[in-house]
Amino acid sequence: MLIKPAADIRPSEITPESVYRSRRRFMRESGTLAAGAATLVGTSAVGLPAEWLAAREVKPGEPIGEQMTSESDATSYNNFYEFGTDKGDPAKYAHELTVDPWTVKVTGQVEKPGKIGLEDMLSGIDLEERIYRLRCVEAWSMVIPWIGFPVKKLIDKFQPTSDAKYVEFKTLHRPSEMRGQRSFFSSIDWPYVEGLRMDEANHPLAIFAVGMYGKLLPNQNGAPIRLVVPWKYGFKSIKSIVEIRLTKLQPKNTWNVLQPTEYGFYANVNPNVDHPRWSQASERRFPTTLFKPNRIATRMFNGYDEVASLYKGLDLTRYY
Amino acid sequence: MLSKAGLGIGRPQGSSGRPRTLAGAFGSPLRVAKLVVFCLLALPMALLGVDVWREVAQPGSAFGPDPTEEVLHYLGQWGIRILLLTLAVSPASRLLRKPQLVRFRRMMGLWAFSYIALHFAVYLLSKAGNPFELILKDTLYKVSFAVVGFYALVMLIPLAITSTRRWQRRLGPGWRKLHRLVYPAAFAAWVHLLWLSKGDFMDPLIYGLVLALLFAERIVFRIRKERRAAAANAG
Ligand code: HEM
Q: What ipTM describes this predicted complex?
């Protein structure tokens, strides 16, 4: 993968590769153990059996030369309004969700629509690790090692028709287990919806993730299956997906419907287009400390220059 | 100011020589009550202080991965709560017919101001690393929720300064008029909260309801007062 390290990253922030490699080996070797513990603890129930991941070969990810966010930060500081609006709410309440069994419905402009169990759906798909920057629209960022596979691999299984121009994704709507969906004060019209243009979804950087940090996804991070589109703001990377619909028309994504002047359909990371309430020119890279926000410059497409060709001729100020 | 009773003069003393009641020890029931209220309002700040201490000793231990934001929100929440509590003092004293409640108002207002001023300081801290003009522009006119928050704070500054008895005497009847600024300030603070909320509107709805009730009480009170005055004139 061609991910260049940022020019302004201090050497001290880079995990030495030798350390990284040995940690990786440790993670792989202790994978069974860790995944087993996860189900026992219950705070991170998973939609796939614990052995599922352990039994699979995961192609290791390329280090990107940036310090990874700690697993505890990445699993305790989340925006997942289905469980509440505080950053700590998802870690507190996501265990109330049952993700096993899990089925995904694929509909719309496909030759072979269907509704199938997650495990069957993923059969024959190779897993790989991807270490990605995650840039939230709220101007903070993390670096997370995901485990997943390209979106294209899954969508191709259902054979899109020539009318498929966009992909729409939906999160589970289950108020009985997702307390944010029961909230009287919420202005969100559940379920949460996101979408991509077909060529965006087919880009090799766009993945479905089923794991992170060598384990299956914890619920608060979008178990059992979520989208990760690293060159777009985090809200595009929809969690706990139950429906994938291929469409002719551009899907209406939740935040765009709610506040169209603040959140667009594209939501490409762009330091030159400010959010009306804050600048997007820089971001706080976690962990920050009390007296040092650890502010770094935000890069166009979050530093993933290889996607630029998707937007040739598109006015990114207008289509933010 | 120590009262006679507080010094134990002219009162029978216990064998230990200390005043018998707690109130006696501090001067008067009002002083004790003031101390209690002071401590209650200081408590959130003290708890924050403990967490900041922990955080400084071991970064990441007290506030999670984004401590500045956490502290910012905490101070904003307590700022608006104590501000609304301060606004509730006069109505409460009228409804409960306890005029002495008003004696707590200045201290409460100053605590509200302290939380809010610190909230603003932490906002500036959270913006550290940005060009100065950008922060200035955002705060003074560009980012609407920050702008109304800023003007709420600006309105509170003269109130904090003139909260002393000396200023009260110096300004005479003008003091009351000036201090009516607290209403637009509270309203601006509420708009600040409304504009920064997204996806969930519990806080602006609840605080807005409280603010509306306090406004309503004030209006009803004024109307009644005017009617009484009119009736007195007519009679
Ligand atoms: C009377 C004055 C003010 C009051 C009562 C107030 C109160 C609040 C409250 C209640 C919150 C929400 C906290 C939460 O979500 O838990 C908040 C957030 C915030 N306030 Fe204020 N505030 C005031 C003035 C200011 C000023 C002067 C600034 C800076 C210019 C400011 C900047 C912020 C920021 C940046 C946030 C967080 C916004 C976000 O999360 O997106 N506030 N404030």
A: 0.78
